[in-house]
Amino acid sequence: MRVLSYALMTISDAFPVLVNRLSRVAHALQFSHGLNPAQWEALRYLEKANRYSASPSAMADYLGATKGTVSQTLIALESKGLVRRDRCPNDRRAIVLALTDAGREILTQDPLCQIYAATEKVPKAEREQLAEVMKSILDDLCVRNNSSQFGVCGDCCHLDDGDCAGSGTCGVTGDPLEASDLKRICIDFSPCSDDEVSLSK
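RESULT FIELD:
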């Protein structure tokens, strides 16, 4: 893999080039353990999705893929014994996706962990700042392209009655949320406004 020099580029020129280069490297890494990048993405999504978002349509929305593409990905993962489909207990017509034990096990060998390992030489404060910058860019692009932002319940404006114990209630469904739910991705996520964030502090 050839490493290019960006020293003579302006930041505005270098940044999109670097993002594109990194995405290509990440894509190549994910042809691993008999899986392809789309299959790894599906497994990661199901590991993080909450109970309202573990559906083929929500996955397609999150991944920016067509329902047909996601359907083929899920068929492949089911054939490998990594994902299963269950009927929703509240609506027998609806499908809920879940990782199998084998699916959770293979995620312990996620090839993108190599990218995390490469960041460990960077000071923690700089890593946190970089993550915030990347999140800000992603959020802006989602708004510009009218895409669902997704996010975790703990950062959502629909979270009601949160307390220091980490529990709360979903303002969309009215369901109680456990502390573990607050860290999961939700399709109904809506970011808090700056005013709401300042009031919560």
